[in-house]
Specification:
about 80 residues, mainly alpha
């Protein structure tokens, strides 16, 4: 029982660390995932709007057709949020 509790504690702490880490680009992070995370920051808090526009524009050119359409729309939205 103690081992289960310890495992759950480690899992919760690891999840907390991953959720509170800053949204910085890494070499292996897909462009569409960066687009989505930056879009959330831009639309909710008005942060990272320029990065959102850049990542979503890149994702619209490199993603599958369905995702590309969303990314293009989000790039437009982030561009206009950033101008406020």
């Amino acid at each position: 029982m103690a081992a289960l509790r310890f495992s759950l504690l480690v899992a919760v702490l690891l999840g907390l660390v991953l959720l509170t880490a800053p949204n910085q680009a890494s070499a292996d992070t897909p462009t569409f995932a960066l687009c989505v995370s930056d879009r959330i920051s831009c639309s909710r808090r008005g942060l990272r709007c320029a990065e959102c526009s850049d990542h979503c524009t890149k994702a619209s050119k490199t993603s599958q057709p369905g995702r590309a359409a969303w990314a293009k729309t989000w790039a437009w939205i982030c561009t206009h949020y950033g101008r406020k």
